[in-house]
Design goal:
The structure is a homodimer of 235-residue chains. Chain A is of the alpha+beta class. Chain A contains eight helices and five strands. The first copy, chain A, has a four-stranded antiparallel beta sheet with strand order 1-2-4-3, sandwiched between helices. Chain A is globular, with a radius of gyration of 20 Å. The first copy, chain A, starts with 13 loop residues before the first helix and ends with a helix. The mean pLDDT of chain A is 95. The interface between A and B is large, with 127 and 127 residues. β1 of chain A pairs parallel with β5 of chain B, so a sheet runs across the interface.
Chain lengths: 235, 235
């Protein structure tokens, strides 16, 4: 791929805009579709570079990326998932418990790599521009890196699944992450046999996609009135 | 723009991939470049739809979007910024205080609209798939919506600036957001006279961009060894 120009005046053609939306609307949380094929180093590097170009509060870039390829490490993370998953199942009402247990929720062992995204809250000193009042901003920066990674991967035909059914201390122990470093995400990453056309929890009847017009308001919480122009475009 | 297909097999051409990276690498946090021009409803709707297609834990879609157009409301938020900004300046060492005060950090009054993104943690019931162990996952979902919004806006030529120098209670009061709803982001949104070619805190010499190869590890925290293949692509 040729170098992407950084420019003060780079506009997007209609085709480029469509490509961005195609990526956003076709990104999926992948659990059951991973192939074992390795991701070439140049492609993985592009995906990581996209993550590294996320916005960060005070430009602190608080993230690190741990690439997990060792089968023994994956095995420990998978065991941690299984323990947490059993605990989670017990939290659901009886009516939801069996449907919950039937969901495929991770591809830790099948995905050729995992990527753990962390947040070093002490990076670049204690006082950070923009984190003085909302202390969670650095964590949110690292989440933006996850979303950039996810979208870049989708454009590369690489699937990503965010595994959050884990006890924090288990993931920390598996990857030897010190207490001072916050855990943001454990991602399963790899090529897929297909990307589901729609989110699997939607297709499985777990929850429907909400109507966008039901969650857009004007000038204050839950206020409406006279905005049919925008609302008519929200479907 | 024509409808974006959702498909199990939609691959990306090299041109589409380049468009996605162009968007990711040219996204900027906009503070001083806003124009007053209104954003057409159909374009704003596309940007909001991109946000709504973010990943969400258990497909809970916990976000709401409050579009701020009322000058009086913007004025209250700007006053809240000024109060927090004065507090923030006092937190920096003397050497950093004057440089901090010289930074342009928001465009609350200049941007034609603000968008407040919130998180309703009670949406769809108390037990959420994937939030059973890492309780912050719903907040992180709403952050992913912010990043989708930001990227879609960039593709549309619309600038976004995330204002985080605000006391939470001031923003809550200005928008009448109930205590049960979490505040994620207040975004200034509008067309710009230009997008800076590089992040402004980098250009201003506040902090440099880190080298990506310094923050990528293998199989455990800060572990290296034998991965020159990938590292050589990280620059």
């Amino acid at each position: 791929m040729k170098a992407i120009p950084l420019a003060a005046d780079c506009a997007f053609t209609a085709e480029e805009q469509a490509a961005v939306y195609k990526c956003i609307f076709n990104r999926r949380d992948i659990r059951g579709q991973f192939l074992a094929d390795p991701i070439p180093d140049d492609i993985l590097a592009r995906i990581l570079r996209a993550a590294h170009h996320a916005p960060s509060v005070g430009f602190m870039q608080p993230w690190d990326f741990i690439i997990v390829r060792d089968g023994a490490v994956k095995g420990r993370i998978h065991a941690a998932f299984q323990a947490a998953h059993a605990e989670a199942a017990a939290m659901f009402d009886e009516a939801k418990r069996e449907p919950y247990k039937s969901l495929k929720l991770q591809g830790i062992l099948e995905a050729p790599i995992g990527i753990c995204v962390t947040c070093d809250r002490a990076r670049n000193g204690p006082v950070v521009v923009g984190r003085t009042h909302l202390r969670e901003m650095d964590l949110y920066s690292a989440v933006c890196a996850v979303q950039n990674l996810w979208l870049a991967a989708r454009a590369e035909g690489v699937g990503v699944g965010w595994v959050s059914i884990l006890r924090r201390e288990d993931l920390r122990a598996a990857l030897h992450i010190p207490e001072a470093i916050d855990l943001i995400a454990y991602l399963c990453v790899g090529y897929v046999d297909h990307f589901p056309a729609k989110p699997e929890l939607g297709s499985a009847g777990w929850l429907p996609r909400m109507a966008l017009r039901d969650i857009v308001w004007f000038d204050r919480w839950r206020q409406r009135g006279g905005e049919e122009g925008l609302l008519s475009h929200l479907g």
